[in-house]
Amino acid sequence: MSIFQFISDFFRDSAHWHGQYGIPHRVLEHLQYSFMALGIAAGIALPAGLITGHTGRGGNALALIATAARALPSYGLLVLMFFWLGIGLTPVMIPLVALAVPPILVTSYEAMRTVDPAPVDAARGMGMGPVAVLFQVELPVALPLILSGLRSAAIQVVSTTAIAAIVSLGGLGRFIIDGLSQRDYEIVVGGATLIVGLALAMIALFWLIGRLAVSPGVRGGR
Amino acid sequence: MSGPGFFDIPSDLQNSYFGLVGLHIEEALIPVAIGLAVALPLGQLCVRFSWLYPPVLWITTVLYAIPSLAFFIFLIDYTGATRTTVVIPLTVYSLVLLVPAIVDGVRSVPQETMSAATAMGFGPVQRYLKVQLPIAVPAIIAGLRVAVASSISLVSVGALIGNQGALGNLLQDAILYHRSELALNSVVTTAALAVLLDIALVLLRMALTPWMPRGDRAARRAARTAAVEPAARPTLEDTAA
Q1: Helix (H, G, I), strand (E, B) or coil at B26
Q2: Which of B27, B171, B225, B238 to mutate to test the interface with A (most CBs of A within 10 A)?
Q3: Which of residues 196-235 of B touch A (CB under 8 A)?
Q4: Where are the domains of chain B?
Q5: Where are the domains of chain A?
Q6: How far apart are the first and last CA of chain B?
Q7: Residue B174 near residue B189, CB atoms below 8 Å
Q8: B236–A144 C-beta distance less than 8 A
Q9: Could you confirm whether domain B15-233 is CATH 3.30.930.10?
Q10: What are the chain A neighbours of B142 within 8 Å (beta carbons)?
Q11: The complex's ipTM?
């Protein structure tokens, strides 16, 4: 049986569409975990990256933190936190946040560093105060790169949230882990397909956010 | 401490501690090496024919969005629960990270430098090997650093598809035998491997680019850009296009 046969069987089975173990509920759980982790990571990394980028100080420390966080294996960290903290949301959030912080931190820093100084000077010359310069000039110009960091983090978090199922939480990983232990390949492939779909949806989501939030003047090219 | 110790690896893994370390390095670096071997010519093609770059970027961005676990699972149908199943996705991820790094690096070579090389009688091949590639080294190493770190981390996930995760297999056994020290061992060793390989790459960059003053602003700047996710770059390109 081909892999596409498995996928279509999985989605055609109406039993997979209802109740607490159904696809809609699992997708919702998956998105809940993902956005929670992404929110926490953004809450930590965005201000840190933007402030250090704005002042231009602490860039090396930041690169060091990002490199160290990237060295942590998500799956291993999850199992370790499961041993230390037991079953719950926290042991899942820790590896996911550690995964999302480096791309957000580094791109937001780099985005602020690489803002063209000419419009900033022009804004100052027009009498804008430091706060206005930050929010009306620097941030809008830096936004595309900041968003690409968030997108990179979102894709990685949505993909990795599957591991929540290893420590008995929900989400789309449930299909994969349960399917693997029951040797039911159809469910495994179905779950994997759904995760790919969600990851691709993140690309679409951030493309849309970029369209709506990035000023046409910035988008128009350099 | 009673019971088995930190480095007592359960016999079902059929490997010693250092055996697992070796296996892990192998499973992580083979994909990066293959990725680099493919990315170099592909990157060069993208520089030569610039219309090729946007579609290549799109394809690589989409491929990068495929979760490793899902990728492994799709491949089981074709390659079984073998090491190949782990190596193929990691190769794809490395490729995705390296192509933009190489293109950015090669494109950063100033036109004057290229003209000077041509004036000195360099042919296209010589110019590529002796001018473009060396100048692109910091960018390529930057891409390699991210690729190696992610590869080292992702090998562990191979444990979920049947003991193909090297040090990640320790995590399975940690749960199976209720031995948390095995999980700690796996995380610490994996992280240490990632950090050591990262340092090795930084040293390699220093050795390959002796003209870059050490501790200087330029070198520090290169170290910082090393931390920028190459995968996060595409939107910049397509918003600019």
Answers
A1: helix
A2: B171
A3: 198, 220, 223-229, 231-235
A4: 15-233
A5: 25-219
A6: 62
A7: no
A8: yes
A9: no
A10: none
A11: 0.80
